[in-house]
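Re: that chain you flagged

S.,

Sorry for the slow reply, it's been a week of failed gels. I finally had a moment to sit down with the sequence you sent. For the record, here it is as I used it:
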Amino acid sequence: MRVTLLGTGDTTGTPTVGCACDTCETARERGIERSRFSVHVANDRTGESVLLDCSPDFRRQFLDNDVSLPDAAVVSHVHFDHLDGLGNVYRLLDDLPVYAADETDPVTGESVAETVASKYDYLDQVRVKATTPLEPTRVCGLDVTLVPVDHPPMSCYGVVVEDPETGAKLSVTGDTSYGLPAESRDVLADPDLLLADAIVPADLCDHHPAGGSHHAPDGTPRTFGTKHMTREGALDLADELDAAETRLVHVAHYYPAQEAFAEPLAVDGETYELR
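Prediction finished late last night. Pasting the structure tokens below so you have them in one place:
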């Protein structure tokens, strides 16, 4: 199973359009990109691939990376930076099954699957496959499981991808606070590679109207506001899940320049072979 990080940034990406902060300027100088979040998972045994989330940067990501167009996609939630690239399948693909949760979101009154289907009902290529969370579904020869996470106020899901032949496991937290349900933590546990939401360092919680939450015993906030993990929260979760390797994603340009490109913060184009 080959995992390519197509997009590792948050909703504005790095560098952010019109921003001259030290982090964005450093990214420009070094030719580093963190585009909106998306992950390509290739099954070398079958020659098929699955796209986890459909970034608005879809076109650029597929031009910049040596990966195949997807045979299927998974949508974690309906925020634009994870969904709005789906329209790119027009004139590129004849058919794309899109897997999304079937649980009704009390905020929207629809499931993620229903929202995707209604938004893209004009595209014959998009076939939405309503999927029950916490139940593995065979997709492109891989077992894909949607995992409920905590990203208020909307329903949101992490994703686990496992190779039934080799046992290789990828866990993606999705957009989430540190307050993941216990059952979801169990499903995410013991991955060969963990991709964890880590939008900012914990000390930036001082600048959020809601501050920080899910504090560690030493008082460090593991959630920025209510929706995303801090770097410290993501690393604590990685330890709890016993991840063999961890990359931090959904990274904002608010990291200080001297920290923004340090390990284990990911950048676009990283590739991992899981066996």
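What I noticed first: The CA atoms of residues 158 and 174 lie 4 Å apart.

Talk soon,
D.
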